[in-house]
Amino acid sequence: MAVRWHHRLVTFALGACLLLGGCASQQHMPWGEGSAAPPPGQAVLLMSVTLRNAYKDRYQPELASVFVQREDVVPQPAPLVFPTDARAALPASAAAAASAPAGGTWLVRLALGPGRYTLRSLAALGRAFPAIAHFSVPLHAPLQVAAGGGVHYLGAIDATVRERVGDEFRAGPVIPLLDQALAGASGGTFDVVISDRYDSDLVLFRQTFAALGKQPVSRAVLPPFDRARAQAWWQAH
């Protein structure tokens, strides 16, 4: 069952990528099961992601993938998609210690070469009988990756679904109508907070990924969530 569910997450991630304009390059998160270390010259970017649904709490979002857009290449390529792997989700006991009981926490690792990027969005699924719903967390965070590789900490992202007010961006698409409404994806929006939990998050990363070892990890925390920018992008698309 776990293998089939993870396959469904990956399938959703790739389908969402195609909707965003074509999936040019599916990436693998470093240090996953069976994955090699990142190539020389690539930086590894770490962040924790906690997703909750306070609006329809039976449908807690499960992180499926992370979308990153390269910004300094012409013509602009399709987004890079990083599906989550089996090692990304924290066990329930660790997640409860790191966040509120409802929801879940994932340890995200992105391997990127030098360049200018936008951390575009997070895709997630919420499942409870009788529906499976799609959620999308808008981030639109600027990301500059310098030459030289290394490991860098981007911060902790907390995204919570609440009931939408007025014309606020939706927590997910409207279609399919029943599934999206039941889970609160179409009638909800995301409140997003980006914070610096370097010390506690690095403990979790080092405990979970032996390959990280004692490598130094620099702070490169993302700027605060820009809700106006997310709203403008949503209205334009």
User: What's the pLDDT, averaged over the residues?
Assistant: 88
Shape: globular
Taking the alpha carbons of the first and last residues, their distance comes to 36 Å
Indicate the percent of residues in helices. 10-25%
Number of domain units: 1
Helix/strand order, N-terminal first:
HEEEEHEEEEHEHEH
Sheet-strand content, in percent, reads 35-45%
Strand order of the largest sheet: 1-4-3-6-7
Name the structural class: alpha/beta
Count of beta strands: 10
SS field, number of helical segments: 5
- How is the main sheet built? 5 strands, mixed
Are there runs of 5+ residues with pLDDT below 50, and where? 1-21
Question: What does the radius of gyration come to?
Answer: 17 Å
List keywords for this structure.
globular; 5-stranded mixed sheet; 10 strands; 237 residues
What does this 3D model show about the protein?
With 237 residues, the chain is an alpha/beta fold. It is 22% helix and 38% strand. It has five helices and ten strands. The strands form two sheets. It has a five-stranded mixed beta sheet with strand order 1-4-3-6-7. Strands 2, 5, 8, 9 and 10 form a five-stranded mixed beta sheet that branches. Strand 6 and strand 7 form a beta hairpin. Residues 1-21 have low confidence and may be disordered.
